[in-house]
TrEMBL record:
This is Uncharacterized protein. It comes from the Eukaryota. Keywords: Transferase. It comes from Eutrema salsugineum (Saltwater cress). It holds the Pfam family Transferase. One of its GO terms (molecular function) is transferase activity.
């Protein structure tokens, strides 16, 4: 039975219809244990109690005679035998402690068809975030985005007229991070290609990231500072989103703003994060004495030694280290000032830092990270390798929008190949309309060599990729 057909999905340059079938629950292909599993104290923080979406586009494979929807549905059921907690429901216990009721009820799955081709997305230059049609390609079933007592995963597979398809997924962030979701999706891909067991066996072991007894907060975690929620909002008109592409040429320009020895010792992600933080701050034009923050998410799996985290650990295992500086410091000092702060924050994450963080959660009531003056960066470039069946790697694999839930001040680094075949990083940015205009002007000055001028030249078209 089909749901009511919605009106055509539109953007400034693309229009199509999506026909969805009734959502269903996909359960594990075999019987799984019925038990209650506690989340870790890294999982169990207020700032992770939401669902986060991602989207993947795949080309038609002329040699594929199978239906991608059927292949993925079957592979999902087989994967859930190994990842059976994901087929359960989150419950809340004493002191708001979260646990998974491994009920085997299943994950939500939607089969859909769209009367559009992948080539049309490419020709209209809308194959990157923010996707104007995202809500139709990952339909929000009423009640499905609740944190407690609801499916923890929603998947929609949409066939395209050309034989390609779109795979969209939304997962409860309390149960997994980007690295954990990647393990889950890669396992679906393996089963879709005919495997019978996962290459990397999933591991629960959430106790490895639980608080110590007694708890001992040994680090200063300013990312969890108490915040004034009123000051966390920024005026400047309606929010708008744009994507920006940074390839080799753009990164070379940015590195020329730095001392050579520092540029050589810094990764592209560190450099780009400092750059975006500085120029985004300049565009916001807030009080010069206001503290601005950049939160550079760090995957801490490699930090653990005693004991190490198993390769198949799919829980949250990252930190929100924060760099802090005033508006005046960021805008008046050279870029190297911001870069050194970003590097210090990144390298502050150690095994003891993570133990201290888990202890902080239980001693401070599982606080949310501070969003006042904050800009959050998360690297999801690993999604570019997610393959299903015979369809190969995605044309696009990553986040669907800039911002998350009620926090628009977040961006994601997505691996991307532009229309010229250049490989780089695409970054969706969300800002108030006036601030976005100034942000584009700031970048225009950098990439046109006019740092000290008020010229009217245009920023390179390949840098600005979209707007909403």
């Amino acid at each position: 039975m089909e749901l009511q057909i919605p009106p055509p999905v539109t953007s400034d340059s693309l229009m199509f219809k999506v026909h969805r079938r009734e959502p269903e629950l996909v359960t594990p292909a075999k019987a799984t244990p019925r038990e209650l599993k506690l989340l870790s104290d890294i999982d169990d923080q207020e700032g992770l109690r939401f669902h986060i979406p991602s989207i993947f586009f795949y080309r038609n494979n002329p040699t594929a005679y199978s239906d991608p929807v059927a292949v993925i549905r079957r592979a999902l059921a087989e994967t859930l035998v190994y990842y059976y907690p994901l087929a359960g429901r989150l419950r809340e216990g004493p002191n708001r402690k979260l646990a998974v009721d491994c009920s085997g009820e299943g994950v939500l799955f939607i089969e859909a068809d769209a009367d559009v081709t992948l080539v049309e997305f490419e020709k209209k230059d809308v194959l990157r975030p923010p996707f104007p049609c995202f809500e139709e390609l990952l339909f929000d079933i009423e009640g499905s985005s609740e944190v407690l007592n609801a499916p923890m995963i929603l998947i929609q597979v949409t066939r395209l007229k050309c034989g390609g398809f779109i795979f969209a997924v939304r997962i409860n962030h309390a149960i997994s991070d980007a690295a954990g979701l990647s393990l889950f999706l890669k396992t679906i891909g393996e089963f879709a290609r005919g495997s019978h067991v996962p290459t990397v066996a999933p591991v629960w072991e959430r106790h490895l990231l639980s608080a110590r007894v007694p708890a001992s907060v040994t680090h200063v975690h300013r990312e969890y500072d108490e915040q004034d929620t009123e000051s966390a909002t920024v005026d400047g008109g309606a929010l708008v989103s744009r994507s920006f592409f940074f390839g080799g040429a753009e990164m070379s320009v940015i590195r020329r703003l730095l001392p050579q020895n520092l540029a050589n010792r810094s990764t592209d992600l560190e450099t780009l994060t400092a750059f975006l933080w500085r120029y985004r701050t300049a565009a916001l034009r807030t009080d010069p004495n206001k503290e601005m923050r950049v939160i550079f998410i760090v995957n801490a799996r490699s930090k653990f030694r005693n004991p190490p985290l198993p390769p198949g650990y799919y829980g949250n295992a990252f930190a929100f280290p924060v760099a802090i500086a005033t508006v005046r410091e960021l805008t008046e000092k050279p870029l190297e000032f911001a870069l050194r702060l970003v590097k210090e924050a990144k390298w502050s994450v150690t095994e003891e830092y993570m133990r201290s963080l888990a202890d902080l959660m239980v001693t401070k009531g599982r606080p949310r990270f501070s969003i006042d003056g904050a800009y959050l960066i998360s690297d999801v470039r690993n999604f570019a390798d997610i393959q299903f069946g015979v369809w190969g790697k995605p044309v696009y694999g990553g986040i669907g929008t800039a911002g998350v839930v009620d926090f628009p001040g977040s961006s994601f680094y997505v691996s991307f190949e532009n229309s010229k075949g250049e490989r780089g990083i695409v970054v969706p940015v969300c800002l108030p309309e006036k601030a976005m205009k100034r942000f584009v002007e700031e970048l225009d000055g950098v990439f046109n060599g006019q740092l000290e001028l008020n010229g009217r030249s245009k920023i390179p078209d390949k840098l600005i990729m979209s707007s909403l």
